[in-house]
Amino acid sequence: MMAALASAIMLVSFFPYLTYAVPAIAGIFIMVAVIETNIKWAFATYVVSAIITFLMAEPEAKMLYVLFFGYYPILKSVFERIKSRILEYILKFAVFNAAVLLTYLLLAPVMGFSVEDFGEFGKYSAILLLVGANVVFPIYDMAISQMAQFYMMRVHPSVKRIFK
Fold first, then answer.
1. How far is CA 21 from CA 36, 60, 62, in A?
2. Residue 148 to residues 7, 70, 92, 97: CA-CA distances in angstroms?
3. Residues 110, 67 contacting (CB under 8 angstroms)
4. Which of 41, 49, 84, 101 could form a disulfide with 6 if both were Cys (CB 3.0 to 4.6 A apart)?
5. What is the pLDDT at residue 91?
6. How far apart are CA 81 and CA 4, in angstroms?
7. pTM of the full predicted structure?
């Protein structure tokens, strides 16, 4: 059910200005799968939703979902079990930066632009993208944590009662 909900949310990515928000929201359903089941089932949920999303969603949004937002809630739950906070954040930022760079490298040809199209600014576009993304990433990470807390306090008790 979570894979279907994540995939359905990804269809909204065709609306202008929702390209970045929709994959992040769809990832919340993967977070629910982590909470309600386990990492194996959450990963299976991600794979199914990624396949469906890859077939249906808007190109940029589906790349963002498949290459980061879909699996990040699973990795987040693994990384947050690490005792060292420094190592946890190093791993989180390493995965995030690798995903941003991979997305950038894959989307540039798909979207039909190159760094030369932007003149002098183009030389620095990847660096500026990384800097901006790294400023926003901790906010996203905290938001996912807050959503998980909200889910555990407000929704999980009802779900637990239903399936008890």
1. 24, 11, 12
2. 20, 15, 17, 23
3. no
4. 49
5. 98
6. 28
7. 0.88
For the chain, the distance separating the N- and C-terminal CA atoms, rounded to the nearest angstrom, is 18
The pLDDT of residue 154 is 95
pLDDT at 122 (0 to 100):
66
Nearest Cα residue to 155 out of 45, 31, 39: 31
The total number of residues written for the chain in this structure:
164
Only one residue has tokens 């909900």, namely: 5
Give the model's pLDDT for residue 18: 87
What CA–CA distance (Å, rounded) separates 53 from 61? Answer: 9
Give the SS3 label for residue 1.
coil
CA separation for the pair 1, 86 (Å, rounded)? 35
- State which residues of the chain have pLDDT below 70: 111-122, 164
Q: Are 34 and 77 in contact (CB under 8 A)?
A: yes
d(CA 122, CA 115): 4
Can you give the C-alpha Rg of the chain in angstroms? 17
Cα separation, 65 vs 19, in Å, equals 10
